[in-house]
Every structure is written in C-alpha cells, then in structure tokens.
C-alpha cells in the first residue's frame, strides 16, 4: 500500500478536496504515524480564508495528531511500530494532520498515556504548546516563567489572568497556571463554562456575558490582592489585548496568541509576547524536546487534562464542515476531532 487519502486545500483561498497522495517513508530521525484522530484549529480555517504560512499548494493542513507509529526512521530510539503517539503537525504537506499518514521528528513526539484515548490526545498538541511556549519559554519567545519546565519552581501567592479561558489554548493556560502554583487564577469566559474552568484550576471566572471587556481590568484588580504580573490573551483581538495590558502591573507581561499584530511597547516596563505555539519552530526546538518528554507524564498524572471532544463524522471529508462551524463561532468550549481512517 503506497497510496493514502489526504484532504487537500487545492489552491490559495480555494476548496478542500479528498484525494489520493503517496505515503512517504520516514527520513532519519522521523516517525511515520498512522493518524487515527486529528483535531481542528482556528488556524486551519484562517489559512483557507486568508492564505498565510503555506509555501506550496495543494496543501495539507492540520496540526493536532494522534495515532500509531507505522514506521521508525533511521537513528530513532525509544519508539517501535504500533506505539500510540501524539504530536504536532506543521505547515508542510509531509507533516500535515489532515491525511492518513504523516511524518514527524521523533524528538517532538509523545507516547499517549493509557488514561486517554486517541481523540482526547489529539486535542492537546497545539493548544498545550501555545500555552507552554507562551508562558514558560525564555524571553522573547515566551514570558520566561519556567524555561527548563522545572515544575518545582512556583508562583505561590501570585495572581494571573487569562482572557478567553474556555478556548482550547485558554484551558491549557489555566492548567499551567495551576501547575506553576499561582494562587489566584482569573478567567474571562462565558458563565456556562464556570464549573468546568474551576475544575481545571480557575479560582474566579468573570462572565463575559455580564462584564464588558473594557471593565475587566477594574474587576480583576478587585479580585487580586497583589499586583498581576502575567496575563494571557487567548482570544487575540485588540480589545482583549488592551484589557490584559491594563490589568497587569508595571513590569508585567501579556502573552498574546495573535502573532500578526504589531508588538507595540505598552510602556511602564510592560511587555507583550506574541507567541508562535509550535515545537517545530527552530528557536523553540530545544524547549519542545523537553515539553514532549514532560507532557505524557503530566497527562498520565491528571495534571493536564485534554479538552472535551466533539467527534466529527465522515473521516477527512467531515473536516470542511467542522472548520466552517468554527469560523462561524459555533464551537464553544470543545475541540472538534476528525478520524482520517474513516474516510471512504
Ligand atoms: N499563536 C499561536 O501559535 C496560536 C496557537 C493556537 C491558537 N491560536 C489562536 O488562539 C485563538 C484561540 O484558539 P483556540 O483553538 O484555543 O480557540 P477555540 O477553542 O476554537 O475558541 C473557541 C472559544 O473562544 C471563546 N471566545 C470567543 N470570543 C471570545 C471573547 N471575546 N472573549 C472570551 N472568550 C471568547 C468562545 O467562548 P464561548 O463559549 O463563550 O462562546 C469559545 O469557547 C485563535 O485566534 C487561534 O487562531 C494561536
């Protein structure tokens, strides 16, 4: 069997179509992964709508992968055919997630712990990388809270804010704040997510249906009894960024998921970090290697729980509809997951 099914974005701003493409052999240091579950992300519909990141069309998108090791490349140690693994895809066809087989460097692949299934595992890579690189990685790529991922270094007694607490990224930010020992974790999200976000570690949820974004700094300052030094904008729009900047104290940092904005110096020694949440990116690679060694144990111990899953029907063909739903803001607090092997 040398052919597989892939979901191709035919051309810039074009349509998605399921097609046959070759299955590639892993190069040195790579794993070939048979993809069982592939999660959808806003970046996938944004690439289709706006055309960025992609150098060559037709393009295979998809950055959240879970499956089985199919073949082990030369020089790879610690993985065997059949291992259950999860990994982050990248914006080149050989590493895309919207296909049945992909190639990923083994040093940034993790083994799926037995307490979660493929679909749950697929919800983790991009969201967790974005949260972890943004918060922990050394400056300027991250806020530098814990560049060695040494979780014995803590922030007990300190407050933190995440705007967009119910986003996939926001859910991992809350869990990382908890792991880092922050005592007050304030999330801005819809009220119906309150109990769930508290189960992840939020101590306070500000209802975005009740409190307009411009009032958030005022409410946050009433909740936190010491100045806030770190905020995470998991929504990425200008109003959310402005609220985060206003909420933090002099010398504080805002991590922002929108890498496209101009990073203006907000003054007062405050800093805005524009995160690019991928272990594939060369400046993040060393951190990514540590992350992928650490993450499976955190998941196994229940310290990091996956996002809740909504399963999509029709294999790769079902992805397009899922992306349109996401684009229409109709996905709330869950991750959409497709199953490439179910493609007819
Ligand atoms: N820089 C990077 O490397 C990177 C990586 C990953 C993601 N991102 C970006 O980060 C953003 C979040 O991605 P994601 O996958 O985590 O999103 P997601 O899970 O698809 O986001 C959906 C959630 O966003 C919430 N939301 C929408 N507008 C909001 C607002 N104004 N205030 C608070 N919550 C709001 C919705 O809440 P309700 O339930 O209340 O409707 C919904 O639960 C996207 O813009 C994405 O493109 C960037």
TrEMBL record:
GO molecular function list: oxidoreductase activity, acting on NAD(P)H
Superkingdom of source: Eukaryota
Span of the signal peptide: none
SUPFAM superfamilies assigned to the protein according to its UniProt record, in alphabetical order: GroES-like (SSF50129), NAD(P)-binding Rossmann-fold domains (SSF51735)
Pfam families assigned to the protein according to its UniProt record, in alphabetical order: ADH_N (PF08240), ADH_zinc_N (PF00107)
Every Enoyl reductase (ER) domain range: 14-338
Name of protein: GroES-like protein
Species classification: Eukaryota, Fungi, Dikarya, Basidiomycota, Agaricomycotina
